[in-house]
Amino acid sequence: MIIHSKLKPEQVRLERLLRLIAALINAPRFLSIEELQTKVGLAKGQGEAGYPSDLTAARRAFHRDMNELTALGVPVIRGRAKVSEKDTWGYRIRKQDYSLPEMDIASDELAALHRATTAVRFHGISGAEALWKLGGQVGEGTDTELAAVPMYPCLADLFMAITEQRTVSFDYSGQPRSVEPWTLAFDQGHWYLMGFDHTRQDKRTFRVDRMVGQVELGRPNGFKQPADAPRWVSIQPWRLGNQPEITAQLWVDAEQVSLASRRLGQEPEIIKDDGSAVFTVQVNNVNAFRSVVLEFLEQAEILKPLKLRTDFVRWLEKINK
User: Fold this and answer.
1) Percent of the chain residues past pLDDT 70, beyond the cut
2) Which of 183, 180, 141 shows the shortest CA–CA distance to 159?
3) Per-residue pLDDT averaged across 278-294, rounded?
4) pLDDT band at 6, cuts 50/70/90?
5) Helices (H), the chain
6) Where in the chain are the domains?
7) Topology classification of domain 9-98
């Protein structure tokens, strides 16, 4: 299902700012306001990035953009520009002022990044180009894909709505919904939005891929999130399965005990003198349990039963081949 997101005024302005930055960076000399407006382009209609055709309105928009770039810390410098034999003020960005410094990444760190880019796949996004920019080489990574994260056009709108406290409107299960968004979470292969549903007058959780049509945003600060708003309660996929139930013992390092308690939805059965803890977990889906253990990397270890522990070690060895 394709989810469309309507182009909004703030998105149009963002595109115009990006065009302006590109023009300023690529300028071999100081460019006048008129030259920059020509490079950015004219807005041919509502919903299109560019400056107004009216010169006065275009100048006002340009100065607003420059003020915003300055507030964002973009290093725009000002100097003399010659236009039609006349001296006027111009602007540019020196590449050395705007570029990031060289990142001193060791070869083993690049190798780890390479394995990560091949093990986790974001739909529609390639990690290869980012790896090249960091100085790495794209070769053999891992043939085992550990995770695939779907990306939808409306996710940016939903993140903005939560950050700026905007209500969101969309169709869901054949009904229009108006929601105060509290939390956006990715869990077990799906994105979920939790918030207060005005239609039902109660808190609700929505799967993002089941939202139909456009996601409309309300005005900023359109609601105030309650202090006691419930946070995301993670699904327990290791309990969702038809396999015979296994009672597993999971050791967790002291630094991760609090996180493990929230992730597993239970308190540890044993707390050791060094602060580490042992959780007793009922498992009906071994593959899902492996994924949870992997979240804690070397700071978690399956203690019992022995077969579950041995199978997990063999699985890790297979991944690293």
Assistant:
1) 75
2) 183
3) 89
4) very low
5) 9-25, 33-40, 55-71, 95-98, 107-119, 128-133, 155-164, 257-264, 286-294, 306-319
6) 9-98, 107-149, 155-217, 237-319
7) Arc Repressor Mutant, subunit A (1.10.10)
Phi, psi values for residue 291, rounded to 5°: -60, -40
Residue 176's CB is within 10 A of a number of other CB atoms, namely 12
pTM above 0.85, yes or no: no
Choose the CATH number for 237-319 among 3.90.930, 3.30.200, 3.30.70, 3.30.1930.
Answer: 3.30.70
Average pLDDT over residues 208-228: 86
Provide the residue count of the chain.
321
User: What three-state secondary structure class fits 214?
Assistant: strand
User: What residue type is assigned to position 46 of the chain?
Assistant: Q
Question: Tokens representing 180?
Answer: 């105060």
**Angle, in degrees to the nearest 10, between helices 55-71 and 33-40:** 90
Cα–Cα distances in Å, from 181 out to 122, 192, 217?
A: 24, 11, 11
Q: What is the pLDDT of residues 227-277, one digit of tens each?
A: 777 665 566 778 777 788 899 999 999 988 888 887 887 889 999 999 999
Region of poorest pLDDT, from 60-74, 116-130, 262-276: 116-130
256 contacts 300 by C-beta, under 8 angstroms:
yes
Cα 140 to Cα 157: distance, rounded to the nearest angstrom:
36
The residue whose two tokens read 């071994």 is 286
Q: How confident is the model over 165-214, as pLDDT tens digits?
A: 899 999 988 889 999 998 887 766 678 888 899 988 888 888 888 888 88
Q: In what side-by-side order are the strands of the sheet with 168-172?
A: 202-207, 190-197, 175-187, 168-172, 211-217
Cα 142 to Cα 113, 146, 156: the distances in Å are: 11, 9, 30
Q: How far apart are CA 234 and CA 220, in angstroms?
A: 28
What is Dmax (Cα atoms) for the chain? 85
Q: How far apart are the first and last CA of the chain?
A: 36
